[in-house]
Design goal:
This protein is about 5% helix and about 55% strand. The protein is mostly beta strands.
Length: about 800
């Protein structure tokens, strides 16, 4: 009997082994094709097989015989997909990419976005910008890409440089934050752009209104907060290649990024290169100060440039620790429109029209290096956040050497050199003493060391130190009503360094004699500043409508150029003189917001009232120095109000209509320019947009046709010597679509955009070159491809 039982058991075991040797396991994952995030709850169905994806998107099907099978993968929020799987000993893991369905995507956006729900509870007026928005509206610089957001405009410097303006205020009144650290360059200058690579950015939060409570000085008008990218999922690798070409300035650009993660360690990397020529304007000559500058083939001569950027980060994540160290380097070289840099160009030997791609004098070279570490620790009921950053901004401005006044002809082309090192530390502790309170306390420190060089003096070398401590509490009165209040104190000092001319000037003495003096332009001077910021507000959520009210006080420390500049600014045809007696700017602002959003209709309005106790501005005087009009920094009380309005509606199943408007009124109520507005004040403007999504057409999936019409009123409210700007209407059109080019890979995104369709001649009141009567760029056709990949 024993041997019979043993024999039967051996036969059964051998049969099982034989079957097992010809059975296999299908392993795979289901991924969102657009975001590359896992899809939970997807159904994987085959003939006799069934599985459901987990929270990480993974699924398994056991005991599958060798062969080829069809699997249908479906999810309520995604378009279903059928794939073929070859089962055998050398099979690889299956990766299924599902595309979101349009109707379900809208439900996810409105009801399922956790961060959007959390933002509703904050009383501050802010707007989140997604990667999808950035990809669809990509322009030549980050800030030009954001211009479609109501309340946001730019000061453009040619085709590749721009700086942010929020509700009519820019320069150092808008803080730009990247990965928790304020971006520090030479942003005080009219012609200094933003040294940030716009590729690879996934999310931006824009705060409109005073934000000194959290960000300190320089956030008096608002914040552009470039937030860290999401951490990749375990055992993943993905990337994308962006290719761009434009017709107006013959731009060619490519940007490639990758990211990957094992279990706890992850990395990201990106390289970007752009090369562009002189851009075209819809005129063939420029008339400035009765001088006629002829333009060859409509090219704005010497506005070509190059940009080369690189970034890399490495991170670690566990249950209680998240840490990422980010390295980046942005390097640019671009020319200034030759006729905007002084009338001496009329006698220059440079042939500016010999090539539309070379960069001749005058030009600028900028290199911005940045390293940032963000670390988050979960300790008990506390979340500790540490941001540590170092930045080096090296900027050179080159121009053709020319004698001015008593200054002899310089021996080099380096007119100005700035080398700025910035060290920053942010510490923040978030905790909940009970279920009703969410408390945050923090400390910000920053030290700047800015050195100068070159033969042209404008701003002295300086050291600047600031430290600020803050605390705020978000109190839940009930689930729909939230109260936020906070206070902050800042202390800082500005230490300017002495500077004297490198050449002697002739001075006539009172006794009739003549002296030759090396004039001192700046003194060794240390100034200290201290100020309080505060904010309080309510947010009420009533189903699909959110109501907000917030009142805040912010401040801004004077800059080195405002305190101690003393030199000729040839870019602007003027002599600038600082004022050591300036006080910190103080701003008081009331913000209101009503935001309604349903499935087919959305509406929002966000008015504000703002008062500056001592606004700092550059005032033109009646005095002259070496034929240049003298401008002096002074202060005045300023009253402002305005706001934004937006409406959106889905008229048909595939047609989305949107409209927005923005307006700012500014008036100086004291000082030499009493009853005038502020420089660079944007006029009333509206944007009307129509988006129609077609059915799949040949190889184009979900093609969208978008038409945008920008309608801008005339700006008759100016500050002399500004000139009035006429109103204009500009039409832009875009075609967006996906293409399934590579099998089992995410779709390739195509964008074809035509800006200024009718080649309209118009002047943007906030443009840098508007000051010398240069219109905006003419018609421009751009084509871009985004090619994602993963394994």
């Amino acid at each position: 009997m024993f041997y019979k039982i043993l024999g039967a058991w051996l036969c059964f075991s051998l049969g099982s082994v034989a079957i097992a040797q010809d059975s296999f396991q299908i392993k795979g994952s289901v991924i969102n094709a657009n975001t590359l995030q896992p899809v939970e709850g997807a159904n994987i169905v085959g003939t006799g097989f069934y599985s459901i994806s987990s929270a990480t998107g993974a699924f398994k099907i056991n005991n599958v015989p060798r062969g080829t099978y069809s699997l249908r993968v479906s999810h309520i929020s995604y378009s279903p997909k059928t794939i073929e799987v070859h089962v055998g000993p050398d099979m690889e893991e299956v990766r299924v990419l599902l595309s979101e369905s349009t109707t379900e995507l809208k439900e996810v956006e409105v009801y399922g976005d956790y961060e959007k729900e959390q933002a509703k509870k904050l009383s501050t007026v802010s707007q989140s910008v997604s990667k999808e928005f950035l990809d669809q509206n990509r322009e030549n610089s980050l800030m030009q890409t954001l211009k479609k957001i109501p309340g946001v405009s730019t000061i453009n410097i040619g085709s590749g440089q721009s700086k942010p303006v929020i509700r009519g205020l820019g320069f150092n009144r808008v803080a730009v934050v990247q990965n928790g650290i304020k971006h520090e360059a030479q942003q005080w200058g009219n012609d200094h752009g933003l040294e940030i690579d716009q590729y690879g950015i996934e999310k931006i939060r824009i705060i409109k209104g005073p934000a000194s409570l959290l960000y300190g000085s320089d956030a008096i008008a608002g914040v552009v907060d470039i937030q860290p990218s999401k951490i990749p999922f375990p055992n993943s690798f993905s990337g994308e290649v962006n290719v761009l070409a434009e017709s107006n300035n013959d731009l060619l650009g490519v940007s490639a990024g990758v990211q990957g993660r094992k279990e706890k360690w992850y990395y990201r990397g990106r390289l970007t290169y752009r090369d562009y020529g002189d851009y075209k304007v819809p005129v063939d000559q420029i008339n400035y100060e009765n001088y006629i500058f002829e333009l060859y083939d409509n090219h704005l001569r010497n506005t070509a440039g190059k940009e080369a950027n690189a970034s890399f980060s490495v991170g670690y994540v566990s249950d209680n620790v998240k840490s990422e160290t980010f390295f980046s380097n942005v390097n640019t070289k671009n020319g200034f429109f030759a006729n905007a840099h002084g009338l001496e160009v009329r006698t220059s030997s440079i042939d500016y029209d010999s090539s539309d791609r070379d960069v001749d004098l005058p030009y600028q070279k900028v290199n911005h290096f940045k390293v940032i570490n963000n670390t988050t620790l979960e300790l008990g009921g506390h979340t500790l956040l540490f941001d540590v950053g170092f930045q080096n901004n090296h900027r050179e401005e080159h121009t053709e050497p020319t004698a001015h006044g008593y200054m002899p002809k310089p021996s080099s082309t380096k007119e100005r050199v700035f080398n700025k090192n910035t060290y920053a530390l942010n510490i923040k502790d978030s905790f909940e003493p009970d279920k009703k309170h969410d408390v945050v306390v923090g400390l910000n420190l920053e030290f700047q060391d800015n050195n100068i060089g070159g033969w042209g003096f404008l701003v002295p070398a300086y050291n600047r130190f600031t430290v600020g401590a803050f605390a705020y509490d978000q109190f839940e009165i009930n689930p729909d009503l939230h109260f936020l209040a906070g206070i902050r104190y800042d202390y800082g000092f500005m230490e300017t360094k002495a500077y004297s001319d490198w050449y002697p000037s002739t001075i006539s003495n009172t006794d009739g004699s003549t002296s030759y003096v090396y004039i001192q332009r700046a003194l060794d001077k240390t100034l200290t500043f201290g100020n309080i910021s505060a904010s309080a507000g309510l947010s009420y959520i009533n189903k699909n409508t959110t109501y907000k009210i917030n009142v805040g006080k912010s401040f801004r420390m004077p800059l080195a150029n405002e305190l101690a500049s003393d030199g000729v600014f040839y870019h602007m045809y003027r002599y600038e003189r600082g004022n050591l007696d300036l006080d910190p700017e103080e701003s008081y602002q009331l913000d209101l917001e009503v935001d309604h959003s349903s499935g087919i209709f959305s509406f929002g309005i966000s008015p504000f009232v703002n008062f500056f106790q001592n606004y700092i501005y550059l005032n033109p005087t009646s005095d002259y120095y070496e034929t240049q009009q003298i401008y002096e920094y002074t202060q005045a009380k300023v009253f402002r109000f305005g706001g934004e309005l937006r409406i959106g509606a889905r008229v048909l199943h595939n047609l989305q209509l949107d409209a927005s408007a923005e307006y700012v009124y500014s008036r100086q109520t004291s000082g030499p320019k009493k009853d005038f507005t502020l420089p660079f004040s944007p006029p009333l403007s509206g944007l009307f947009s129509a988006n129609y999504q077609f059915k799949n057409f040949f190889f184009l999936n979900k093609p969208q046709l978008i038409a945008d019409v920008r309608v801008t009123a005339a700006q008759n409210e100016i500050v002399p010597p500004e000139e009035k700007t006429e109103g204009y209407q500009v039409l832009n059109m875009s075609l967006l679509a996906d293409m399934n080019i590579f099998k089992n890979s995410p779709p390739v995104s195509l964008r074809v955009k035509l800006n200024n369709v009718f080649n309209t001649k118009y002047f943007d009141h906030t443009s840098f070159y508007r000051l010398i009567d240069v219109p905006e760029a003419g018609r421009n056709l751009s084509i871009s491809l985004t090619i994602p990949f993963n394994k």
